[in-house]
Amino acid sequence: MAVSDYLKGSGTVWDPYVIHNLAAAIQFFSVDIFRSGVFAELVVDLDLSANTFNQNTKTVATLNGNGYTLTGLKHFTNNNQAATFKKLNLVSINWLNTFGQQGSEYINFEDVVFRGGTLACYSGRMNFTRCTMSSIGWKYMTAYQWGVVDSVALPPTSYALPSGFTDLRSVADPFSASRYPNYASSVWAIDGASAPRLLRQNIANLVQGYLVKGVVKVGGVLKPRFVRALSVVDFVRINDAVAEADGSFSLKCGHYSDAVMVATYEPYGTLLVASKAYVLGDIIHPATPNGFRYLCTKAGNSGTSLPPEPWSTTDTLTVGAAIFTPDPIYQPQLHGPIKPVLCDLITGLPV
Fold first, then answer.
1. Do 83 and 57 meet the contact criterion of CB atoms below 8 Å apart?
2. DSSP assignment, residue 182?
3. Model pLDDT for residues 255-293, shown as the tens digit of each residue
4. Other C-beta atoms lying within 10 Å of the C-beta of residue 309
5. What does DSSP say about strands 322-328 and 292-298: parallel, antiparallel, or unpaired?
6. Is 153 left (phi over 0), alpha (psi -120 to 50) or beta?
7. What's the domain of life for this entry (predicted)?
8. How far apart are CA 304 and CA 264, in angstroms?
9. Exposed, middle or buried: residue 144 (CB in 10 Å: 0-12, 13-18, 19+)?
């Protein structure tokens, strides 16, 4: 798993991680939910039933569900919790909050629909603001562990409720809009005939962006070269990537829609270092340029004695236990100006 599993984003409030598939969700609940200052946005419905998250680490990130659904989330932790969940449907959830409070930190649920599953808190506190509950089982010790604001229990719930929740299971009009005065119409749909439901939020800015696509060739031969998009105006870097083995590339330009120049070239690597463990794909180059770079084709430690230069440009280079194969460096190319195209980042198709 890696940050690259996300559709895009750097994890900040201004540039959140975008969870668009199962791999991205697993990355978030396995790693990034425990990182302070991380913000993520859910843009699809996902089923997490086949996964269990059981890290002994404090949750601190914020997840905005945008009205989408996570089914089967199982999260068990024996440490403090301070995560925040917003505008999210949680179906068949199993959340264990063993040590829920550290100082003034609590786990927070804001505008969340719970349908089925179990919530458990053996110490600390969970805060619920504008949440609806149905068929949720509870495991808790004392009532002070729950902070509840404008939150209700709806049929078919049959479990005992913690204090603070408004019990609408047996009233004549549980779905009347008058019972939900603080539920924002931009977030909730309340029709009076069915349970309040979350509205899908506009996620166009999260799943759309400008792309530059192409195929890299050198002398008519497809090459997986390094590719970089540069602003035509001032040559500022927009983004970069490495083309696929077939030479194809797709560069995300975010919301930058002006013309770009695309530069392609071979990564030159680093100078050879003694007593270093090299892995497949590592790149080195000689201190005196000879028109070649050297790709690690057999992993190993370089040892204490390095080969003298000049290095062969036709035979492999053995350095300790590692072996490197010479690869020619071709002339850099610059293409453009090219106008990025607004695309759906999930499908890659133009909008």
1. no
2. T
3. 899 999 999 998 899 999 999 999 999 999 999 999 999
4. 10
5. antiparallel
6. beta
7. Bacteria
8. 35
9. exposed
Give the residue ranges of the chain where pLDDT is below 50.
Answer: 100
Q: What's the start-to-end Cα distance of the chain, in Å?
A: 29
Q: Where are the domains of the chain?
A: 3-198, 211-266+331-344, 270-328
The model's pTM: 0.77
φ/ψ of residue 25, rounded to 5? -65, -40
Using alpha carbons, select from 64, 53, 7 the residue that is nearest to residue 26.
53
Distance between CA 30 and CA 90 in Å, rounded?
18
Q: Which pLDDT value is given to residue 137? A: 87
Per DSSP bridges, beta strands 146-149 and 126-129 are parallel
What integer pLDDT is reported at residue 163 of this predicted model?
80
Nearest Cα to Cα of residue 36 among 57, 21, 22, 18: 57
CB 288 within 8 A of CB 309: yes
Whole-number CA gyration radius for the chain: 27
Q: Which of 104, 150, 101, 103 is nearest to 126 (CA)?
A: 101
User: What is the predicted pLDDT for the residue at 2?
Assistant: 66
pLDDT at position 120 is 81
